[in-house]
Write a structure and sequence with these properties.
Distance between the termini: 22 Å
Strand order of the largest sheet: 1-2-3-13-4-14-18-16-17
Number of domains: 2
Shape: globular
Helix content: 25-40%
Largest sheet: 9 strands, mixed
Length: 428
């Protein structure tokens, strides 16, 4: 159990941005014999091959091709997750000087719990685009400052006596991170200079960046028996890791695919999100390279199965009234099968039966989540992706507390259960 958590926390630590998550995933795959393919070039694929490819930096596909017929029913297995997380992105021209303090102009990314970000040591990671050999070929570099860089200070209770009664937080006013003390004559170019210095390049070569703020403090185990885990980015690196564990262990003689999408937290409707054409393009290329007709490809897709892997809401001990009366997943209770009549979670009865059977046959604990009927819930990429690639899809994940907080909490046993489920899909 704890080995799975050690691996998870190491992966989270190496993945402070979606681009770093894709890079870390690629390194793990290469260590295990996967060959990288360029998305923009033609491919030559063989049965028995193991491959991965990156699309726009933060979207990654990995797949293995077995020796069996790819058009037969259940030959296609897919597990999908996302690499991004709620928080803040740094705006261009970000530096703000206020009474000698150096602040950064930010915008929210996804539905973060704002107050959970206050008074924490924060760092910066992402990617920077530099002037290249010509206008259409900029150079892109990843950067992770990997040290405490800033904090978002809260207002003292002496100046806001009603703070514990609950306050409205304004992202533009209240969430600007304090980054430096520069004095009254501070240089507004301090942040651009900081980026250039960190990368070892001239400041004038820095043309654009996509940088997110992240909690610097790493994850840890806690609880009397270390049965709990507290960490940033459990949503959704738990699922990224399970997809990778599954594809590495897979023995299915058909086509195993993992899809690690970006931008789920902002709706998935981007060129690297689950609502893009990329997954369908991938399948078309694989089937064509292996000599299958378009009709045979659709035969394989229509008989395929996908797990949409994302975290689920666990029963909160202080707010049990927020849970459904009969479906109350608890931490360390196993994998959560999620469903919603609205299809905000992808499901149908046959698919649920498949997941339950996989769990029962492999000794995996499982439980179910449904929102209270009077409470709208969230959504995942499952229904979005399966509308574009019409394959039977079920949403699953580990239960957590504090979803979208700067730090979230999960049960230590649940990661092992999720890893085992994805492995079972790719091995049966």
């Amino acid at each position: 159990m704890y080995g799975d958590i050690v691996n998870l926390l190491e992966f989270i630590n190496r993945s402070p941005s979606p681009w770093h998550a894709a890079k870390t995933a690629g390194e793990l795959l290469e260590e295990n014999g996967f060959q990288e393919l360029s998305w923009g070039e033609s491919w030559s694929l063989t049965a028995g091959g193991k491959y991965y490819t990156k699309v726009y930096g933060a979207l990654m596909f990995a797949f293995t091709i077995g020796q069996g017929k790819l058009e037969k029913e259940k030959a296609l297995r897919i597990a999908a997750a996302h690499t991004d997380f709620p928080g803040f992105r740094i705006k261009p021209e970000a530096a703000i000087i206020k009474d000698g303090y150096g602040m950064l102009n930010i915008e929210g990314y996804g539905g973060a719990i704002l107050y959970s970000w206050l008074d924490r040591p924060l760092s910066v990671a992402g990617r920077v685009s530099l002037k290249g050999k010509n206008a259409l070929s900029p150079q892109t570099m990843l950067v992770d400052f990997a040290r405490p860089m800033m904090t978002i200070p809260s207002l003292a209770i002496h100046m806001n006596r009603k703070v514990n009664d609950g306050i409205a937080i304004n992202k533009q006013k209240d969430m600007l991170p304090l980054t430096a003390v520069l004095g009254q004559n501070g240089d507004k170019g301090f942040f651009d200079e900081l980026i250039a210095t960190e990368l070892g390049v001239a400041k004038e070569t820095v043309l654009a960046y996509e940088l997110n703020i992240y909690p610097y403090e790493g994850g840890c185990q806690l609880g009397v028996a270390r049965e709990l885990v507290s960490s940033p980015r459990l949503d959704n690196i738990t699922s990224v890791v399970s997809c990778l564990e599954g594809i590495l262990a897979g023995t299915n003689d058909g086509l195993n695919v993992i899809a690690l999408f970006d931008n789920e937290e902002v709706g998935s409707r981007t060129k690297q999100g689950a609502a893009s054409a990329n997954l369908m393009q991938l399948l078309e290329r694989v089937y064509a390279c292996m000599g299958y007709s378009r009709a045979e490809m659709w035969q394989g897709i229509n008989g395929g199965f996908m797990l949409s892997v994302d975290v689920a809401h666990g029963l909160h001990p202080n707010y049990p009234d927020k849970a459904d009366p009969t479906n109350k997943p608890v931490l360390n209770g196993g994998v959560v099968i999620k469903q919603a009549a609205s299809q905000s979670y992808a499901f149908d009865a046959e698919g649920v039966a498949i997941v339950k059977s996989l769990c029962q046959e492999n000794g995996i604990l499982y439980q179910q989540f449904v929102n209270r009927a009077d409470m709208p819930g969230g959504a995942t990429l499952g229904s979005i992706a399966s509308a574009l690639v019409p394959v039977m899809t079920i949403d699953v994940g580990v239960p957590i507390l504090g979803m979208h907080s700067a730090r979230e909490t999960m049960g230590a046993a649940d990661q092992a259960a999720l890893n085992k489920l994805v492995k079972a899909l790719f091995c049966c």
